[in-house]
């Protein structure tokens, strides 16, 4: 067994031989450092810092940073356990730094952006966000990317740098309460007060509409063929079922207007054709007895 552990595998440089025992020791150090990193992260985030007034996201970020430092230190110790000289390690680190500078810019940028997201918390797990036209819930924040789940159960992997450089709509940043504006047009002959009562009744009967703040109705304009109103309601359900809630309110509005005999605008246009030079003989002449009969030739 001892002879097996002393078996040389390969050489580093001219004088350094990597043996089986060195590889096993390095692997053991890596596994141990990974376990210690996870334990330290949970201990710091969930126990020690939980007693302070620090925000949950800040505690989580500090725990992850500590975990990365411990695992990075374990990697250095594992490399030394292989017998790699300090000079070789310095050269390797320099080459790695150059490679990171040129080839891994995006990875490092996203990694640093992930730490900023965890510390500043512009978004956090459970938030409803809109990014690049897609709306979904933040389900996981990783070191390089963030996972966003849409209502269609589609998972978007968004690089963390986007949350630092782009404009993100966070629907639940401070509060999950959102105001919804629904435009409504009715016939011009309608009584505005009756319309207001109908819209407030529709809002009251819609599940998901908050009682406080109370719904409002704005009389916005006299349209060409209609009276234009806007129903404003507050809700917390809009975050996760926006289209469904709007549909429910539209159904309630239609029922309330119909129950009160209020009609929606139905524009009609009358077209008057006037005689003009050059149209003689094209249009049938009208007489006192009425329009020309079918089959008659126009006079002129």
Number of domains: 3
Write down the Rg: 36 Å
Mean pLDDT: 78
| Terminal CA distance | 123 Å
Structural class: alpha+beta
Give the low-confidence spans: none
C-alpha geometry: elongated
CATH topology of the largest domain: Helix Hairpins
Helical content, roughly?
A: 40-55%
User: What's the CATH class label of the largest domain?
Assistant: Mainly Alpha
Widest beta sheet: strand line-up:
6-5-4-3-7
Tally of helical segments: 8
List its traits.
single chain, 20% strand, 3-stranded antiparallel sheet, 5-stranded antiparallel sheet, elongated, Alpha-Beta Plaits, 300 residues, Helix Hairpins, alpha+beta, SH3 type barrels
Structure in words:
With 300 residues, this protein is α+β, with helices and mostly antiparallel strands. It has three domains: 2-103, Helix Hairpins, CATH 1.10.287; 122-170, SH3 type barrels, CATH 2.30.30; 178-259, Alpha-Beta Plaits (2-Layer Sandwich), CATH 3.30.70. It has helices spanning 2-5, 20-48, 56-81, 86-103, 105-120, 162-165, 192-205, 242-259; strands spanning 8-12, 16-19, 128-131, 134-141, 145-150, 155-159, 169-170, 178-187, 216-222, 226-235. The chain has a five-stranded antiparallel sheet. Strands 8-10-9 form a three-stranded antiparallel sheet, covered by helices on one side. A two-stranded antiparallel sheet has the order 1-2. A hairpin with a 4-residue loop joins strand 5 (145-150) and strand 6. It is elongated, with a radius of gyration of 36 Å. The model has no long low-confidence stretch (mean pLDDT 78).
